[in-house]
Design brief:
The protein is of the alpha/beta class. Helices cover 43% and strands 14% of the residues. It has an 8-stranded parallel β-sheet. Strand 3 (64-68), helix 3 and strand 4 form a beta-alpha-beta unit. It is globular, with a radius of gyration of 17 Å. It starts with 5 loop residues before the first strand and ends with a helix.
Length: 256
């Protein structure tokens, strides 16, 4: 089954409002409107950059989605510092990264938290980009497939097949994030295929074949073609290469 690829740029904690406007404009200046027919492009910005980035994209009338990097599962309340899904939706956000390895390792986010966030996003008809991935120690132990597939099962617990279709999974080997070290296409394919097999176990092969699995470990202009050539890799969750319009647009063009 041919799946529409996705390139999602994760700006992480980079770009002030003015810098975010400039980057969004630079991307738009290089973006052809008809590309939206062949690839979904998402800019996942810091919270303060969401509305400014959307304003740029909307003014240019381009098929680029705006995504957040995190959310909280409660609708409202005494949760200082958190952002609800409803707040994101009103800011025209359509996608949201959840379970990123930095959220898990630096801020103690658990599989159960990822599951709650996924359900909250789906309830508002938004697309969760669910991150999974193993540390170097887990890979060296040879248990990375079991580890990642357990994360997938936990993230999708209690989510029905209709909602599952609206989810994206991003495989991000922790040992390859921001290190310049990248999984080989074959290593990435092995895990992405295992993720799809787990989704098939949960929802059936037809649904699994329609769901997108991204690679998120230092994808760049030098390795993108080899990674996208793999059967079960449907695009990328891009970190460093998403912070420059030239490199991010080249990654988008690799999907065309």
């Amino acid at each position: 089954m041919k799946r529409k690829p996705m390139m999602a740029g994760n700006w992480k904690m980079n770009n002030t409002i003015s810098e975010g406007v400039v980057l969004a404009q630079q991307i738009c200046n290089r973006f052809e409107k008809d590309w939206g027919e062949d690839v979904d492009v998402v800019l996942c910005t810091p919270f303060l950059d969401l509305k400014p980035a959307w304003t740029v994209v909307d003014f240019e009338n381009l098929p680029i989605y705006i995504g957040a990097q995190n959310c909280y599962w409660e609708e409202a309340g005494a949760f200082t510092g958190e952002i609800s899904v409803g707040m994101l939706k009103e800011a025209r956000v359509t996608h949201c990264i959840i379970g990123h390895s930095e959220r898990r390792t630096l801020f103690g986010e658990l599989n159960e938290d990822v599951n709650k966030k996924a359900k909250a996003l789906l309830a508002q008809k938004m697309t969760p980009i669910i991150c999974v991935g193993e540390s170097l120690s887990v890979r060296d132990e040879g248990t990375h497939l079991e580890y990642v597939c357990a994360q997938v099962k936990a993230a999708f617990a209690g989510i029905d097949d209709i909602d599952a279709k609206n989810c994206v999974v991003a495989y991000e080997p922790i040992w390859a994030i921001g290190t310049g070290r990248t999984a080989t296409p074959e290593q990435a394919q092995e895990v992405c295929a295992a993720i799809r097999s787990t989704l098939a176990e949960l929802y059936g092969q037809e649904i699994a074949d329609g769901m997108r699995v991204l690679y998120g470990g230092s994808m760049n202009t030098g390795n993108v073609e080899g990674l996208l050539a793999m059967e079960d890799i449907d695009g990328g969750l891009i970190g460093g290469a998403a912070l420059k319009a030239e490199s991010f647009v080249e990654l988008i063009k690799a999907c065309l």
